[in-house]
Amino acid sequence: MVMPPVAKPALTGRFAKTPQPTVSVPVESPSMASFGPSEQDDHELVAQADLLESQVSRKQICLPVGWTHTLPPADQLWISKVLFKYSSHNQPEMDFTRVDRMWWYPPQPPFAVAGVPGTERYFGHPFFLWMPRKLWRVKLTCPHPDCVKEELTSAGLHQKIRQVVDVKTSYFMASEYLSCRKCKRKVISWSFDIVSQLDISHRLQFPCILTSKLACDMAVVRLQRQRGLGNSSSQMQKQLEEQHSENWMLKVVQYLTDCQSFRKAVTAGLVMPMSFEKPPAMLPVPKHRWLMQVYAQDVLQRLDEIKASITSRFGRVLKMDSTKKVARKLAGHSAGTATWVTNVGNEHGQVIMTVLTASEGFGLASMVGGIIKRYKDASVPPPELLYVDRDCCGGTYLKKIFEEWKDMEIRLDIWHFMRRISVGCTTDSHQLYSTFMADVGPKWLMTKASVCVG
How far apart are the first and last CA of the chain? Predict the structure, then answer.
């Protein structure tokens, strides 16, 4: 005999439970089963949960806060996975057990796409880690003058990273903080005072020149060194923009092609409907004025080398000439400060020295003294011949300042000699000037007894 259930007394006060909502579960009837099994709904829910879990895991970025302001979203995920971990205080820190090189590259797109295409595999940028004190264990000293060779110690990561403009794309560079125990000041390891302390082998591994906000790779810097009509800063900026745009478009085409294959699978009913991330915008290329700033910094860093290259040019035959045309082109603060420009060149067309003077002949003694000293310091024999535009005969001022080179002959340049013959033509723009000079020129260039007349 089944006894009826006994009703329990209701609880009052703090022992009373909150009434739970009742859920009515309908009994499945044969007619409802024909609309589709419940297992299909379970599979869809599991697939949606897996997709949501993958999206959430992709958003978990373990990076310093300052890095996230500069790094594009496509680079934040793979860099956080490769180089960082959470500390015991749940703060991101670099895992130096994984750091075995300076250059890091983003994951590449797979040959056969098996999952939802992620932008980090298509639009990631290379990453350069510059930490000479931490990685090479080199001794670096404080660059401030009040600290006498005080050794620097590592003080963690610099909270900002720098975008570096390369030929085809851009990459990002991170650095470390160095702290001085004496003055308590911090220095970034990519500063020029720190890089210049390294030996030549390690110094050459620093890949760029820094500016206020960006940096320029040395490959771009070297392309600017040969200045000319076809290699201006504006032309260089256009070439860089074309290279960056071409590289970015190739990545967009590959990414959209892989997304299209999934779109076809959705249309065929093979996979669930899904949404894809939009391709990120291309990082802008700086203007031509920024390239000129980089070029100026490169010249300043190579100033000793450039001076040595210029002052190592000599010649057996020299030519000295003065002109006003170059002085008239001076602009800015230098405008009007000089009237004459005097150049000294050799037989190869190379300029040995250039000076700007307020009047013709003034200050040439210092220039000549510098040329004579250059020949002496290099143990090079003095030149045999000097061509000038005036003062070639008699006891002139030029012979006095060149008195140390007693065996050198001073002659009048053939061009200026012919100009003295053309006094019948009033100006260079005379109608018969070009015809007259064309006929006179070959007649003076003659050889007599192996001596060039003129």
Answer: 145
Mean per-residue pLDDT over the chain, rounded: 80
List Cα–Cα distances, 262 to 40, 249, 258, in angstroms. 21, 20, 7
Pairing state of beta strands 215-217 and 162-165?
parallel
Q: Which of 386, 391, 387, 352 lies closest to 371 in space, CA to CA? A: 352
Q: What is the pLDDT at residue 28?
A: 42
Q: Which pTM does this prediction carry?
A: 0.67
CB 123 within 8 Å of CB 117: no
Q: Is it true that domain 303-412 has CATH number 3.30.420?
A: yes
What is the rounded CA–CA span in Å between residue 419 and residue 436? 11
Q: What is the pLDDT of residue 237?
A: 94
Confidence of residue 294 (pLDDT cuts 50, 70, 90): very high
Confidence bin at 30 (pLDDT 50/70/90): very low
Map out the domains of the chain as residue ranges.
58-301, 303-412
Decide: residue 214, CB within 10 A, 0-12 exposed, 13-18 middle, 19+ buried.
middle
Buried b (16+ CB within 10 A) or exposed e, 13-28: eeeeeeeeeeeeeeee
What is the band of 59 on the pLDDT scale with cuts at 50, 70, 90?
Answer: low
The pLDDT value recorded for residue 25 is 38
H/E stretch holding 135 reads helix 132-135
For residue 394, with 0-12 CB atoms within 10 Å meaning exposed, 13-18 middle and 19 or more buried, which class applies?
A: exposed
**Taking Cα atoms as reference points, which of 427, 411, 421, 412 lies closest to residue 441?**
421
CA distance 101 to 143: 27
Contact criterion met (CB below 8 Å) for 219 and 239: no
Alpha carbon 285 to its chain's center: 11
Q: What's the pLDDT at 90?
A: 86
CA dihedral 54, 60, 61, 64 (to 10 degrees): -170
